[in-house]
Task: inverse folding
């Protein structure tokens, strides 16, 4: 049996805290061993509730969670958390304040001698590059170090499933980027099925093999990061992954016309109302003597390596474009805008 055959399968999971709308509302999700799945959604969409249901910390009101052939949760069935072989990294890390990094890491280990358990825990601390801080207490550790202890503790017993709830949210940007790499390495070594809960699209895109998008208690789309980014199935999915420009259009001869040029719309009938979705970096900005739709730059903001431009077209509509910082566009410049036809995506207007 290969790792790919080992699955955590969530079907129709429903968690309801009170009468009315369920916090998790018929969610479907599959986690594969050896792979990282990001659960991406806005605050309040039900991500933590779903994670807690998988860990066995919430009971299901409907649906089923199974790992391989074992039912973990179903109506009337609830395997206790300690029997699920799940490692959890909570948002606040939840380290034991009176235990050192090493003893925190060894906490969930069973069997063998104390020396063997400590040696096993030390291996996990080495995997997250924290062996030098093994004898420090949580209050002596930085936020990033605490996060790595929490990860080492979750991985130490060799769990089948690792669940991480916004593990980088309390950390500054630079540290987050460094920790992502360490975390990704440690997770890939572990061969567990990992669920990384986040509201940060960049983090999901950087770390995950698969992204599941959550909105209002439901998983609305699942796929590879680049596929979701470039070919979202709906406007909600598109917006969860980053900024997007939307042009309403009507299909004619498998083409959708927008003010910035035509987009291929294969598979749509003539006259079908559609939305043409374009990421800001796929809007090409050229000098006014080139081809494209005439516009004026009304706002210019420098970001990390990129320039964010708001361009007003002749009909008054504003369009956002991103270019390289080295492109010397100035506020007030007249420019020509066009689409990168390979990077536009057309969806039915009813999916908007
Ligand atoms: P997320 O992690 O995506 O921010 P949560 O799963 O925490 O979302 O919350 C989803 C919804 O369930 C929210 O409306 C939240 O207020 C509600 N909720 C979460 N936990 C509880 C709880 N223990 N009791 C009652 N309502 C809860
Ligand atoms: Mg949450």
Result:
């Amino acid at each position: 049996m290969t790792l790919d055959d080992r699955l955590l399968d969530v079907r129709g999971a429903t968690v309801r805290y009170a009468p009315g709308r369920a916090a998790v509302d018929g969610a479907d999700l599959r986690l594969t061993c050896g792979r990282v799945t990001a659960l991406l959604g806005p605050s309040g969409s039900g991500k933590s509730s779903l994670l807690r249901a998988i860990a066995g910390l919430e009971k299901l009101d409907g649906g089923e969670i199974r790992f391989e052939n074992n039912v973990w949760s179903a109506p009337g069935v609830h395997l206790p958390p300690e029997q699920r072989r799940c490692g959890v990294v909570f948002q606040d890390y939840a380290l034991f304040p009176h235990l050192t990094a090493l003893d925190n890491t060894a906490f969930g280990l069973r069997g063998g001698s104390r020396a063997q358990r400590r040696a096993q825990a030390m291996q996990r601390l080495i995997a997250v590059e924290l062996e030098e801080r093994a004898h420090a207490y949580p209050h002596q550790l930085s936020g990033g170090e605490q996060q790595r202890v929490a990860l080492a503790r979750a991985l130490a017993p060799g769990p089948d499933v690792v669940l991480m709830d916004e593990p980088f949210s309390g950390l500054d940007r630079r540290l987050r980027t460094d920790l992502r790499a360490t975390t990704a390495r440690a997770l890939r070594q572990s061969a567990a099925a990992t669920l990384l809960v986040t509201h940060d699209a960049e983090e999901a895109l950087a770390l995950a093999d698969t992204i599941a998008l959550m909105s209002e208690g439901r998983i609305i789309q699942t796929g590879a990061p680049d596929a979701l980014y470039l070919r979202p199935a709906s406007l909600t999915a598109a917006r969860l992954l980053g900024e997007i420009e939307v042009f309403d259009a009507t299909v004619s001869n498998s083409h959708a016309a927008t003010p910035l040029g035509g987009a291929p719309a294969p598979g749509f009938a003539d006259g079908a109302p559609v939305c043409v979705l374009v990421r800001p970096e796929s809007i090409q900005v050229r000098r006014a003597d080139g081809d494209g739709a005439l516009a004026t730059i009304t706002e210019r903001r420098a970001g990390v390596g990129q320039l964010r431009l708001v361009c007003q077209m002749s009909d008054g509509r504003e369009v956002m474009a991103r270019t390289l910082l080295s492109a010397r566009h100035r506020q007030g410049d007249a420019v020509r805008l066009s689409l990168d036809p390979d990077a536009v995506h057309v969806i039915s207007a009813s999916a908007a």
